[in-house]
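Entry details:
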Amino acid sequence: MKRILYIMHVPWGWIKQRPHFLAESLSNDFVVDIKYRRSNSVKSYNVKRFSPNPNLHISGFKMIPFEKLPIIKHLKLDWINKLFFRLSIGNIYKYDYVWITSPNLHDLINGLKLNAKIIYDCMDDA
């Protein structure tokens, strides 16, 4: 069965939006590993990670909002967020597809020589 790495900018289980419905539907035909950006404002104990579908695996990763910190935003510390993300996913080369829901998340995989097809799901006004 083909595998999808589904990278979301919306926390899982907090408010169900379009990416949640798509990921659940995709898990009917694929193994879907969801990595969602953990919110810095919503407490993680309020976010449910339960999935009744055995093909759907859900976990989050932290990103430090360097762009919102005026004192250090010019220091180019995004490599730290890339490191957090890559440590959270393990072997990224096992995926056939990488699905991204926000252009802000593209930097997390930028520079990797992936064999996977990249799918960008354009949402809202992004």
The chain has a mean pLDDT of 82. The CA atoms of residues 27 and 55 lie 5 Å apart. The chain is about 15% helix and 20% strand.
